[in-house]
Amino acid sequence: MKKIKVLAAMGAVMAILLSCSPSGNGEIVPANYEVIPLPSEIVTSEGDPFILSRSVKIIIPEGNEKMRRNAEFLAEFLEISTGIKPGISTGTQENGAIVLATGLQHPNAEAYEMRVDGKSITITGASEAAVFYGIQTLRKSIPADGGQVIFQPVTIKDEPRFSHRGMMLDVARHFQPAEFVKRYIDILALHNLNRFHWHLTDDQGWRIEIKAYPKLTEVGSQRKHTVIGRNSGEFDGKPHGGFYTQDEIREIVQYARERYITVIPEIDLPGHMLSALAAYPELGCTGGPYEVEATWGVFDDVLCPGKEETFTFLERVLSEVIDLFPSEYIHIGGDECPKVRWEKCPHCQARIRELKLKDSNGHTAEHYLQSYVTARIEKFLNEKGRRIIGWDEILEGELAPNATVMSWRGMEGGIQAAQMGHDVIMTPTAYCYFDYYQTQYTDEEPLAIGGYVPIEKVYSFEPAPGILTEEQKAHILGVQANLWTEYIETAEHVDYMVMPRIAALAEVQWVEPEKREYEAFLTRLPRLVGLYDKLGYNYAKHIFDVQANMTPSFETNSLEVELSTIDQAPIYYTLDGSAPTASSTRYDGRISIRENVELRAVAIRENGHNSRILSEQIKASKSSYKPVSLLTTADPTYRFTGEGMLVDGLYGSNTNYKSGKWIGFGGKEVVAVIDMLEPTEITTAEIRNCVVTGDWIFDASEIILEASSDNERFTEVKRQQLVDTNSTHWSDIAVHTLSFDPVTARYYRVTVKPTVMPAWHPGKGRKAYLFIDEIALN
Ligand code: NAG
């Protein structure tokens, strides 16, 4: 691909430009075709550029409504960015026109070509949808802040990698009005997404009008209040509710369709159904009473599949759903359905006997009962010409014959389903959960569910893992990200969680992996961000922050710190905790740290868009930056950068155990040996555990410190037993300091043992996870 060159012909066209410049300032701004998502092929050439003048027209084929709408979109987009609103006409090509056409012969219906020469811009698509993507490319190639745009001659050939390019929105936890949903669809369209997964029902609210069951919205769409924070036990005292009428839904489906986005509705069943149970308690195993849930989590009361009326209910609801949504796919949820009620329910047990369901292959009869529900609903929908998507729990028991699996708890479900010949949509939490934090500095963030999915992580996602054969990979229909809204109430907050991570998602969905390069993506991003500004979107600004790459070096025995910004803005820093300013030390290479310091850094920009201040407290101990080896292995998901994290002098500041500061071990002891390089006297050992018992992460049960001069024979220095006296869930950072008479040795071995989970906990009798951030010997 050739880089765009500054045109030699620029001077020659200057005079014409000045006369037709909309802003009158005559500033010439060349279009840049390297937009997000990056087109497959961009070949620029020499020659006269195309000049966007006030007289420009958009020409479309006659009698094609979709193409007329495409032209209207283009006219509107051009007006937003340049102030020029082209007229639209049908017929043959004229000089100075933008020509939109279908008829491109291409196996991919979403493929388009865009050609620019001195006379015209032509976008030819394999379908109207494809033309729309060409329009988006054209629109995004124009700088958002106006000026006189000139287009260098180019031939762009472009097609998406995946056919399912989705984004989910949960309107159950927090309802959003129809206008909001349309705005969300606009954001998807800007990024070339083509599937809007609409999570319409959940424990905390039923949001879709169903004529056959009016109480679903009368009762199920309203909750009396909402818990404050993360299930604090205190409530806000404000009723919350809302739903979409069928007319509104039709309008939204049409709005999305005009933007070539298919709306996939989700009715989450048989779990996450408390809002429906509150309205129709007879559909639950116990008969209720139930309430629309006001806290977050997974709840034991679910639909009763022992009763035939549950199926009548589901079929009637789904019949109305399919009348409203033309999508071939209907999402039927299937996630997080506890089986405790079914185990005790006479109706469910009778159904289990009737169907001769048995515990087998590691699944209980009740898991097979959920498979029965899924298969029965699938059959119902298949007969109506529709197909189902379910969360990866539908693999537990027996997978319904034609189901598509949405893999969220990792990639494994998706891999397994693809290997079984089923279609898959990848949406693993570690890359695709946009309700997770996007920075490690969570103290300054709006409250989120936890987790850590920075934009770089999203960008690094490869949805078709190498262990699949080519044939199996063909079952990966695509990728989507999910926005669950337990902690997200406003449009501004939605914007903030979605953008710019959706830009990274868009490239994962559209661009072939060999063309995906994070550094290059970052150079494209500021121009898209310019458009966000223009459109009034409240995107997250972390990308403009100072990035710190901090690695303990066992060669220099120091913490090597590298600072950077995406736009190479100058960075200034201090090490004494004072606020950095333009008169502080300017960063010009790596910083080596061996002592206790507070690093603070800021990027200063001419346009005033300075970064937020990065602050890192570095607490060096005698063991910091000394070679450490782990004799047990960390959990692959929570290993992050590995054993060096134990001696990097960096501490997790809160109980967000996915922040990359904590290293996690699954139900096994941690054994680490630190080589102090020379005999070193110590009198204390401090070990910190992150505890979140709700996530099966407990404090240690025992810590043992041993010393050795040869790394072979160790003698015990200190052993400390820890007893957890809590009888309910808790989360905190537990700090353990072992003190002892001075001991001198070169090698120290630290063993941290996990707890066996207590009787009050669902994981009782099993060994808990252990998370540690540092071993400090002093
Ligand atoms: C999961 C739940 C969802 C919740 C979300 C928060 C799925 C399929 N299920 O526990 O209801 O809102 O995580 O990240 O994601």
TrEMBL record:
Please state the Enzyme Commission number of this protein: 3.2.1.52
Q: Keywords in UniProt for this one?
A: Glycosidase, Hydrolase, Signal
CDD domains xrefs: GH20_chitobiase-like
Q: Beta-hexosaminidase bacterial type N-terminal domain location, by residue?
A: 33-158
A cellular component term (GO) from this record?
Answer: membrane
Give the main EC class.
Answer: hydrolase
Catalytic function, reaction form: Hydrolysis of terminal non-reducing N-acetyl-D-hexosamine residues in N-acetyl-beta-D-hexosaminides
Q: Which residues form the signal peptide?
A: 1-26
Kindly give the SUPFAM superfamilies that the UniProt entry links to this protein. Answer: (Trans)glycosidases, beta-N-acetylhexosaminidase-like domain, Galactose-binding domain-like
Can you name one GO molecular function term for this protein? beta-N-acetylhexosaminidase activity
GO biological-process terms attached to the record: carbohydrate metabolic process; glycosaminoglycan metabolic process
Q: To which protein family does this belong? A: Belongs to the glycosyl hydrolase 20 family.
What protein is this chain from? beta-N-acetylhexosaminidase
Q: Which organism is it from?
A: Petrimonas mucosa
